[in-house]
């Protein structure tokens, strides 16, 4: 039967069918309802300036309204309220004195920018401080007015904090479901990429790079799932989510083990339809996981609805024919063995997907997190220690250089704003700089593009709305939709956020001052000026990504060695469970993720700043394959638990671990360009001794355990070769 063409998976966060059930939409709706609702409530009892001050307090607090546990959410939002209140008071007191205001704007910018040293979680807090700073710089008030204004701002922030905590408490289980579903959607996309390895028209090297990059996205979403689901699991509904969470990770490891020698399959089975059937079978598995994720977003149990029978029948028929061809010498026995093993693993993965369906329906048994195990090593530990910030107050620190760069850019923006013929809202230049200028050149480049295009579209859309819509109620409706969209897309597609934010501000100005149509043109000019300044200063005191590569490569090699040791202990049964193995695997993947992220950012920098791109790609893929090989060894030993000579197996594993660890240790050394790369045969030969020191049984060349170990050797030696090349290139 002819194979059907593969339908690409949708993008979870941009598909309307799933977006309206996602935490992105819920966050946008919650923020819009709180900010707009609070503003309208205050407007019933006060004047417009008072309501707008309260609105700004609520809006700045909402920037920290992110998916998190209730305790962490409260701490994060409260820190935002307190920090932004201090910034509001300081800037409002300085506003009447232009020279003092300019100094304080630069100082606040520097201090706020230093907060990015605490990582991704601190980025919204840094921006909220800059956001409030820019909106307060036009407030020329005396001391009494400044204190009253700050009090209103604080009231708005605290009111939104109370509102958000109340809503989040009622929806605390819902956010867990949504974050878990997002991780499942990304796992489905990961498996869909795996399916293309069986497509003869897809280049293997580029597909490996695509797979590794998707693995980074998947790891981020899985970590978000851990942070929410493994904390505070108390009821039956939470227990089901924990069960699905662990099932997802077991399935992920099994998918890792399906890695095989795709080149051999393509070389020997290029004319056979079996590879197309395998591709379609894996694609259906991805769709099946997607249905589970979709059911979880709708708070429903999931039931299997996808049939694999047609593809399985076709593959089994092809296998029978290939067996006959193999006996006739037409097909390689090695390729046929690889094909059978791969098909068996895929079938096992499909069975595990069936178990995931069951896991959504009821609690199936005891769960690790409910049995007293400490899950802390798997959770994100955010620490805001003053010593971390102080230690980065040095010229070599990328964070310090960014803070200086941002302060200089803001200074230039203030000078540009003073030179404009209009002064009513020149602060938009400063705000644009704060939005666009980011710690890395790559982030600045992307944010600049999104901001310019988004602002242009937002201004045009707002002009059309104001041209044809004149009823205040209708304009409020558009304003509410823009207020929902702005936070909903900020971490999905910032360009949409830029469009919504531009519409939001322009509609607000028009509602307050109906005859302010000229503001749209001035807004465009301010944005262009701010973008030009941010772009220019992105080259000032830069911290190019290649400078961090040596340390990141070493981190990967060290975490790889720890993972191999933990894997060896688990495979030999030296430990009772896989807890340490899972921790080491997570840390290994985290180190690879950091390296990949750095590489991607480096590719957005000027070409003259690119270093060892091809070698880094190969290095990343080979390290990733180590995880796949260990996972495959684990599955092999599980499947062949009976009948294997345990002493010989343990000897093979010990020798393999020793050899590969030694090679990885040498790879660390050859990052020094002056160190010679030792020959690959310098490592001890595998399977020479058993764990007890005796002679191990010899393994046939075709044995799957020996084949997998040989692949592990080959990839570790390639890691060492690429490490040496990276060291030489970085030193050149």
> How many structural domains?
4
Uncertain regions: pLDDT < 50 for 5+ in a row? 1-8, 680-702
**How many individual β-strands?**
0
- % residues in beta strands: under 5%
Radius of gyration computed on alpha carbons: 29 Å
Secondary-structure element string: HHHHHHHHHHHHHHHHHHHHHHHHHH
Helix count, per DSSP? 26
The overall pLDDT average reads 85
Q: Strand count, sense and closure of the main sheet?
A: none
Distance separating the two termini: 56 Å
Structural class: mainly alpha
Characterize the overall form: globular
Helix content: over 70%
Region (Disordered): 671-698
Membrane topology: Multi-pass membrane protein
Keywords: Cell membrane, Membrane, Transmembrane, Transmembrane helix
Main location: membrane
């Amino acid at each position: 039967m002819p194979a059907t063409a593969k339908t690409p998976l949708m993008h979870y966060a941009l598909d309307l069918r799933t977006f309206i059930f996602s935490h992105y939409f819920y966050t946008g709706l919650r923020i819009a309802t709180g900010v707009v609702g609070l503003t309208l409530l205050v407007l019933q009892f006060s004047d417009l300036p008072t309501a707008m001050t309260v609105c700004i307090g609520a809006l700045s607090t909402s920037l920290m309204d992110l998916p998190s546990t209730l305790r962490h959410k409260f701490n994060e939002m409260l820190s935002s309220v307190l920090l932004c209140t201090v910034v509001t008071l300081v800037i409002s007191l300085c506003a009447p004195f232009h020279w003092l205001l300019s100094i304080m704007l630069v100082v606040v910018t520097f201090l706020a920018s230093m907060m990015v040293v605490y990582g991704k979680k601190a980025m919204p807090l840094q921006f909220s401080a800059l956001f409030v700073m820019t909106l307060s710089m036009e407030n020329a008030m005396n001391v009494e007015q400044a204190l009253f204004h700050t009090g209103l701002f604080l009231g708005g922030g605290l009111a939104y904090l109370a509102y958000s905590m109340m809503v989040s408490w009622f929806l605390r289980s819902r956010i867990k479901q949504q974050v878990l579903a997002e991780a499942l959607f990304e796992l489905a996309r990961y498996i869909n990429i795996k399916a293309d390895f069986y497509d003869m028209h897809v280049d293997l090297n580029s597909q490996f790079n695509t797979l590794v990059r998707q693995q980074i996205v998947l790891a981020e979403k899985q970590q978000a799932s851990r942070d929410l689901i493994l904390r505070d699991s108390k009821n039956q509904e939470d227990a089901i989510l924990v069960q699905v969470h662990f099932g997802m990770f077991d399935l992920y490891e099994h998918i890792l083990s399906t890695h095989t020698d795709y080149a051999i399959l393509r070389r020997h089975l290029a004319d056979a339809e079996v590879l197309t059937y395998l591709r379609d079978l894996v694609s259906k598995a991805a769709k099946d996981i997607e249905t589970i994720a979709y059911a979880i977003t709708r708070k429903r149990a999931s039931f299997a609805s996808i049939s694999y029978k047609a593809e399985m029948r076709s593959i089994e028929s092809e296998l029978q024919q290939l067996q006959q061809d193999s006996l006739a010498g037409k097909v390689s026995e090695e390729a046929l063995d690889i094909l059978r093993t791969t098909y068996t693993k895929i079938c096992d993965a499909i069975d595990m997907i069936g178990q995931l369906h069951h896991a959504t329906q009821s609690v199936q048994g005891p769960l690790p997190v409910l049995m007293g195990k400490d899950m802390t090593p798997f959770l994100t530990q955010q620490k805001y220690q003053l010593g971390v910030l102080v230690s980065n107050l040095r010229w070599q620190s990328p964070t310090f250089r960014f803070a200086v760069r941002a302060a200089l850019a803001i200074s230039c923006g203030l000078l540009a704003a003073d030179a404009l013929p209009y002064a009513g809202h020149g602060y938009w230049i400063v705000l644009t700089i704060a939005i666009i200028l980011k710690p890395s050149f790559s982030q600045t480049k992307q944010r600049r593009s999104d901001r310019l295009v988004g602002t242009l579209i937002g201004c045009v859309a707002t002009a059309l709305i104001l041209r044809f819509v004149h009823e205040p109620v209708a304009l409020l409706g558009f304003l509410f939709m823009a207020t929902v969209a702005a936070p909903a897309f900020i971490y999905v597609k910032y360009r949409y956020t830029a469009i919504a934010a531009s519409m939001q501000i322009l509609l607000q100005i028009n509602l307050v001052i109906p005859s302010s149509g000229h503001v749209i043109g001035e807004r465009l000019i301010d944005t262009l000026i701010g973008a030009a300044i941010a772009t220019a200063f992105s080259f000032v005191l830069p911290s190019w990504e290649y400078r961090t590569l040596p340390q990141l490569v070493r981190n990967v090699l060290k975490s790889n060695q720890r993972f191999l040791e933990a894997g060896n202990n688990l495979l030999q049964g030296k430990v009772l469970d896989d807890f340490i193995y899972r921790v080491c695997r997570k840390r290994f993947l985290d180190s690879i993720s950091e390296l990949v992220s750095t590489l991607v950012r480096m590719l957005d920098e000027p070409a003259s700043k690119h270093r060892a791109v091809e070698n880094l790609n190969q290095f990343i893929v080979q390290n990733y394959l180590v995880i796949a090989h260990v996972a495959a060894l684990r599955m092999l030993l599980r499947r062949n638990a009976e009948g294997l000579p345990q002493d010989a197996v343990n000897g093979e594993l010990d020798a393999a671990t020793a050899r590969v660890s030694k090679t990885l240790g040498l790879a660390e050394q050859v990052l020094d360009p002056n160190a010679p790369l030792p020959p690959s045969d310098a490592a001890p030969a595998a399977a020479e001794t058993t764990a007890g020191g005796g002679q191990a049984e010899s393994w046939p060349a075709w044995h799957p355990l020996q084949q997998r170990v040989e692949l592990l050797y080959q990839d570790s030696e390639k890691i060492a070769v690429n490490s040496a090349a990276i060291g030489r290139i970085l030193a050149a």
